[in-house]
Write a structure and sequence with these properties.
The structure holds three protein chains of three kinds. Chain A is mainly alpha-helical. Chain A contains 13 helices and two strands, in the order H-H-H-H-H-H-E-E-H-H-H-H-H-H-H. A two-stranded antiparallel ribbon of chain A has the order 1-2. In chain A, a hairpin with a 2-residue loop joins strand 1 and strand 2. Chain A is globular, with a radius of gyration of 19 Å. Chain B is 34% helix and 25% strand. Chain B has a six-stranded mixed sheet, with helices on both faces. In chain B, strands 17-18-19-15-20-21 form a six-stranded mixed sheet, with helices on both faces. In chain B, strands 2-1-4-5 form a four-stranded antiparallel sheet, with helices on one face. In chain B, a hairpin with a 2-residue loop joins strand 20 and strand 21. Chain C is mainly alpha-helical. Chain C has one domain. Classes of the chains: A mainly alpha, B alpha/beta, C mainly alpha. Chains A and C meet through helix 5, helix 11 and helix 13 of A and helix 7, helix 14 and helix 16 of C. Chain C: One of its GO terms (cellular component) is plasma membrane. Chain C: It is found in: Cell membrane. Chain C: Pfam families: BPD_transp_2 (PF02653).
Chain lengths: 310, 477, 333
């Protein structure tokens, strides 16, 4: 928790900075809109967290989001009845993609960077092969409600996000979460303590696939169907997780901090917009901040250890 | 040629070496012997520039030297051949020998010169089974040692330190090493030979320096000593350390039993572990001690033989059968360094879905002080880390607990606490197996001692046997 | 063996052949390449074309050149145990730097080339220093630098800009005899990198640092410098690819690097060639094979008129399958 604290401070600071420019920001409607906009990335970051904390990477989530949205549009094709079965199918598809990623990585021992890079190519190719090059069909109104509609004043996506966050925190508190972190921290010690390292890592990939499916459902509703909908999301999700103080290589960091990292990224974009920094410079600022954040983390670590030794 | 005077060194306030003198002359094999923890490795690492001494001086050829980095020691003519070889497996022999000092001609690495020089070195070492262009990965460990020695020679090393060089070698390879050592001394190179194996020492050494508890006991001509005298010098101390009293009654029922257990490293193992009993396992490095523990536990299972309870084929089967293993290498295999004490202590219970005891009770049971479950384990001392590892196993209440070097890197106080705990566990009806290369500990703790040699049970000794008896059984051949 | 020892020094020719065959990690990719060429020949024969026609071979080389040059650079950083995700944006940037400075005039060519290479070397230096000095994981460090470059590009450009003079376009389109200049450029870069890795101290140290940083350090290698140097060379390779693409397009384009997917695809080509992602093992020969493999595959798909999406699927499958096979070979040995 101590290690996770800085990201919450940074997030709070950013929110205050936004509120100074835009006093309405902290009022419920505006704030809920912000959360709603952030929801897909936060959910993806939560899923990516499980993979990263177990010591692996998942580069396939961006193309999985695109694939899910395109599949949904083609299958639903505007029909209301098809909505719920297709939603179930999307969830199943995300889980299966994660399962394949996990099995190839753990059993065939392909580095996860390559496994999921291969999956990225396969997914982005296969889905357009199937639809013939560009997205076809349309999402139904019911489907889109999940991304843009609301229950009373609270958007559905905020509720879904809350549920996902609660589930993620619970999973990390349960035995599963602890064995997952153990596998990422020291897989030999974990295996010699009875942890099924291959299995928990595979489940982590499945969770990441599931989170991509949920993010796709929200993004499909929110942003609509396009071939670009998931583009670059894998890097944004990894960035958010790392920003939250989670170490690449595994074993350190909390899921709450990873999600806070995603909120921070989103708040940063909002702030840059408000201050009139053009959308084009956004990535540059983002890049500098990421490197700085990780560098500060890296420098702090050995100092803490030295203090402990003396 | 080499003179080390008054060398002292402390780690974290614990004095591991004090006032050690060592003189080595050109062309001699100088053996450094002592029990584990006597300070041999630290002394050698100081000589190699890995550690800086807190006090004392090093002179080479009468010139005083200080080494801030291993490379400086190399330049001064000191080469060390570690137990873990420092070679790049994916590179060729020649590339390894000249790593960091590749000969250059017209801006390009002069491969021909490098390879012919390496070839010459290998030839001078009598090595004809491989050449300079072979990948190191494809060589046996014995041949990789030859590469290390060739590297030392290419540095014009005049003092070569060998730290337990025969530990990873098969028997027939040991002869090759002897030849190699004699070739080095014939060139006037001094060899500092660190080993536990007394036979080797008498085969090779001209002089022997005995270290005990971080101080030099004596330096003597090898011809003036025999095995018994040397062992007496090494271990001859008052048995002042306290060990908990042994169980009063006879041991209980057999909880674990192996007949004819074998795998690639072990052969025909017969062993019974009884409730209430601590069985010590002795043996030289490479005799199969750790392998035995891992086989019983299921981490590197037996492939042949009978075992009750059923032979575990995996760690989880071992745990399900009520077996636990406190591993030798705590850092690599025991702890989750970045996790808290609580998460380490509850790991086995969580991994196997066992019902959990309260963490406070658990930490109290292993006498962790202060018992702070939220502290990160890497911030604890070695002794406290080991207590947490112990707690990890106690949380699932195993019937058999295997300890591999349980007090390595543990301070004196924690050591006694761990000994007490082991005895307490046995008294409560657990079967305990303990591997230790520290003979006083093994003898002080064990109800009987099984001695391993080359993957087989060489014999069994009763409680209170002498260190000489154990050594003889372990080192005989 | 004694016989052989007496025969030293070995003649250089024999050494070269042994050296190439000793580069074992590259062997499987060439076996696969050979099989694929046979397959390609069959496909073209059945389809009424000629696979080994000059036209097709030239086409394959032409397509490979830019990716090949980037992948050679990527090989260097991966061997050193690092990684570079910034190459795609750097390619776009250098294509723009080139085209803007040339501005269609011949006189600008030398300055533009020098500027493009300087920009890329500087980027590599930044990458290397962030990785070594700030101790940021290469993945994050180079991703961050990529974002910074992207920001700069997005802020200044909406589309193609600048233009290169006709004389500079020779680089992209001309041939010397049967060989395209771009392929020769690739060959030169690859040969240079091969020479670097097999014949220079820096090359040796790249393998050492990637293989085991601690062993390298104990042998007196200044490991940080080696990593920085590898990053600079990798970025310069990306810069050369940027020059080549500018020459092809006749202008600079802010999306030319990302459209080509040069970041992830160059990494894919490197690992397909048998170079270990963890570093220390592999080489340029394998990477060249990996790039050619991808190009031959492309060419077969083109002949069969398979659409580009199927290509991605097959590439993904081949990539993962190849790595699974490598992992298996390493384990059973």
């Amino acid at each position: 928790m101590r290690r996770a604290l800085p990201i919450f401070v940074v997030l709070a600071g950013l929110l205050v900075a936004i509120a100074i420019v835009n006093p309405y920001f902290l009022e419920p409607p505006a704030f809920l809109a912000f959360v709603k906009r952030a929801a897909p990335l936060v959910i993806l970051a939560a899923g990516q967290y499980f993979v990263i904390v177990s010591g692996e990477f998942d580069l396939s989530v961006g193309s999985l989001v695109t694939a899910e949205v395109v599949i949904a549009a083609r299958l639903i094709d505007g029909s209301a009845e098809a909505t719920w079965p297709v939603l179930a199918l999307m969830i199943a598809f995300g889980l299966i993609v994660g399962l394949v990623n996990g099995i190839v990585t753990t059993l065939l021992r392909v580095p996860s960077f390559i496994t999921t890079l291969g999956m990225l190519l396969i997914l982005s190719g296969a889905v357009f092969l199937w639809t013939g090059g560009s997205p076809r069909g349309a999402l139904s109104e019911q489907f889109r409600q999940l991304g843009r509609g609301s229950l009373g004043p609270v958007p559905w996506s905020v509720l879904i996000l809350a549920a996902v966050a609660a589930a993620a925190v619970c999973a990390m508190r349960a035995g599963f979460g602890h064995t997952l972190v153990a596998a990422g921290d020291n897989d030999r010690a974990a295996a010699l303590s009875g942890v099924r390292v291959a299995r928990v890592r595979t489940v982590a990939f499945m969770i990441s696939g599931l989170s991509a499916a949920v993010a796709a459902i929200l993004l499909g509703g929110f942003a609509g169907v396009s071939a670009q909908v998931g583009k670059g999301l894998e890097f944004q999700a990894i960035t958010a997780v790392v920003l939250g103080g989670v170490a690449l290589g595994g074993g350190r960091g909390s899921v709450a901090a990873a999600m806070a990292g995603a909120f921070t990224l989103e708040a940063l974009f909002t702030l840059l917009n408000l201050y009139g920094i053009s959308g084009a410079l956004e990535p540059a600022v983002q890049g500098v901040i990421i490197i700085a954040a990780v560098a500060l983390g890296a420098v702090r670590f050995p100092r803490a250890r030295a203090a402990a030794a003396s | 040629m080499l003179r080390m005077t008054g060398i002292g060194k402390s780690f974290l306030g614990v004095r591991v070496l004090g006032g050690v003198d060592l003189e080595v002359s050109a062309g001699e094999v100088h053996a450094v012997v002592g029990e584990n923890g006597a300070g041999k490795s630290t002394l050698m690492k100081i000589l190699a520039g890995v550690h800086a001494p807190d006090e004392g001086t090093i002179e080479i050829d009468g010139r005083s030297v200080t080494f801030g980095h291993p490379v400086e020691a190399q330049r001064a003519g000191v080469a060390i051949i570690y137990q873990e070889l420092t070679l790049l497996p994916e590179r060729t022999v020649a590339e390894n020998v000249f790593l960091g000092r590749e000969p250059v001609r017209r801006g390009m690495v002069d491969r021909a010169a490098m390879e012919s020089a390496t070839g010459e070195l290998l030839k001078s070492l009598g090595e004809e089974s491989f050449g300079p262009r072979d990948l190191v990965r494809r060589l046996s460990v014995a041949r990789q040692q030859v590469v290390e020695i060739a590297k030392a020679l290419s540095l014009n090393a005049r003092i070569v330190v060998m730290d337990e060089p025969t530990a990873p070698l098969a028997d027939h390879e040991v002869e090759l090493l002897y030849t190699l050592v004699r070739r080095l001394t014939a060139r006037g190179i001094a060899v500092l030979y660190v080993s536990h194996r007394l036979r080797e020492i008498f085969d090779l050494a001209d002089r022997i320096t005995v270290l005990k508890d971080g101080a030099r006991v004596t330096t003597a001509e090898a011809s003036s000593l025999d095995t018994a005298a040397l062992v007496r010098l090494m271990v001859g101390r008052e048995l002042d350390s306290y060990y908990p009293p042994r169980a009063a009654g006879p041991p209980g029922e057999v909880i674990l039993s192996v007949r004819g257990g074998g795998n690639t490293r072990l052969h025909g193992i017969d062993l019974d572990l009884r409730a209430g009993e601590i069985v010590g396992v002795a043996g030289l490095q490479g005799s199969g001690r750790t392998e035995l523990a891992k086989a019983l536990f299921g981490a590197e299972p037996f492939t042949t033989g009978e075992m009750t309870p059923r032979r575990p084929r995996s760690v989880r089967e071992g745990i399900a059968a009520g077996i636990g293993l406190v591993t030798e290498d705590r850092k690599a295999e025991g702890i989750l360094p970045n996790q808290r004490v609580r998460d380490n202590a509850l790991l086995v219970a969580r991994a196997t879905g066992a019902p959990r005891n309260g963490i406070e009770r658990l930490l109290e049971r292993v006498r962790l002080s202060p018992p702070r479950p939220a502290q990160e384990i890497r911030l604890l001392s070695g002794g406290n880390q080991q207590k947490v590892v112990l707690a990890k196993w106690m949380s699932v209440a195993p019937r058999v607990l295997l300890f591999d070097e349980p007090t390595r890197g543990v301070d004196v106080g924690a050591k006694a606490a761990i000994h007490d705990l082991m005895r307490e566990l046995a008294r409560d009806g657990m079967a305990v197996l303990m591997i230790s290369s520290e003979l006083p500990e093994l003898i002080g703790m064990s109800d009987r001692i099984v001695v391993l040699r080359e993957g087989r049970v060489a014999g069994e000794l009763p409680a209170g046997s002498s260190e000489e008896a154990v050594m003889r059984l372990a080192a005989a051949s | 063996m004694t016989q052989q020892l007496k025969l030293r020094p070995v003649p250089a020719g024999g050494s070269l052949i042994r050296r190439l065959s000793a580069d074992r990690p590259a062997r499987p990719v060439y076996v696969a390449l050979a099989l694929l060429v046979v397959l390609g020949w069959l496909v073209f024969a059945l389809d009424g074309g000629a696979f080994l026609s000059q036209e097709n071979i030239v086409g394959i080389q032409q397509r490979s050149a830019a990716l090949g040059i980037v992948a050679v650079g990527q090989t260097l950083v991966i061997l050193a145990g690092s990684l570079d995700l910034s190459v795609a944006y750097l390619i776009s940037l250098t294509s723009l730097v080139t085209a803007e400075i040339m501005a269609g005039s011949d006189t600008g060519v030398p300055v533009a080339v020098a500027a493009a290479l300087a920009v890329s070397a500087l980027t590599g230096l930044v990458n290397g220093l962030i990785v070594t000095r700030l101790r940021v994981h290469a993945f994050i460090a180079t991703l961050g630098v990529a974002l910074v470059i992207r920001g700069a590009l997005d802020a200044r450009y909406d589309g193609p800009a600048g233009s290169v003079p006709e004389s500079f376009q020779h680089l992209g389109y001309d041939r010397i005899g049967p060989l395209p200049v771009s392929a020769l450029l690739w060959a030169a870069v690859a040969a240079g990198a091969w020479l670097l890795l097999s014949r220079t101290r820096l090359g040796y140290r790249i393998y050492a640092v990637g293989g085991d940083t601690e062993v390298a350090r104990l042998s007196g290698v200044r490991t940080e410098r080696v990593v920085v140097a590898a990053h600079v060379l990798c970025s310069v390779c990306a810069g050369i690819a940027g020059l080549l693409l500018a020459s092809r397009l006749g202008a600079g384009a802010p999306t030319v690097g990302t459209d080509g997917g040069y970041d992830l695809e160059s990494i894919a080509a490197v690992v397909l060639g048998g170079t270990a992602l963890a570093g220390g093992r592999g080489g340029v020969a394998g990477t060249v094979g990996g790039v050619l493999l991808l190009a031959v595959l492309d060419s077969i798909f083109n002949q069969l008129e398979v659409n580009s999406f199927a290509k991605d699927v097959v590439r993904g499958v081949i990539l993962v399958a190849a790595l699974a096979i490598y992992a298996r070979r390493r384990r059973t040995r």
